[in-house]
TrEMBL record:
One of its GO terms (cellular component) is endomembrane system. It comes from Micromonospora haikouensis. It is found in: Endomembrane system. This is DUF1232 domain-containing protein. The lineage of its organism: Bacteria, Bacillati, Actinomycetota, Actinomycetes, Micromonosporales. It comes from the Bacteria.
Length: 136
């Protein structure tokens, strides 16, 4: 039993060390597409938390955003995460679709205020504002 505990502790330590290395490497990425992609999912998680608590967000949009957040957190993926470059692609697509849906349901200024990353990224994802939403 002790051997299993040691092996489990070693596996957990290796996992935490690999996460720390990935975070360090992601922060050292030069500005550009790869850096934007590395920051996209963490920024989306922060946005989901903020929008979930906002009373101006309709229930349907909260549900779509919550489902996207659960998808990202779920260990089940259409494309395994360990595949380089394309691994997180299914997470990005699901989150992007949920945010596009929320973009049609939630006032644009609420979405922009909830986004922690660069504004140009969320604006590109949401597209041009519709005449019914405006920016005021």
């Amino acid at each position: 039993m002790r051997d299993w505990a040691v092996a489990l502790a070693g596996a957990v330590a290796l996992l935490v060390a690999s996460w720390a290395l990935l975070i360090l490497l992601a922060r050292r990425l030069p500005p550009g597409l790869l850096r934007d992609l590395a920051a996209f999912v963490p920024d989306c998680v922060t946005m989901v938390r903020r929008l979930r608590r906002d009373p101006r967000v309709p229930r349907r949009a909260k549900l779509a955003i919550l489902l996207a957040g659960l998808w990202v957190a779920s260990p089940v993926d259409l494309i395994p995460e360990f595949l380089p470059v394309i691994g997180p692609l299914d997470d990005i697509v699901v989150v992007a679709l949920a945010l596009r849906y929320a973009g049609r349901q939630v006032p644009r200024d609420v979405l922009l205020a909830a986004w922690p990353g660069e504004t140009r990224l969320i604006e590109r994802l949401l597209g041009t504002p519709s005449a019914s939403q405006g920016t005021a």
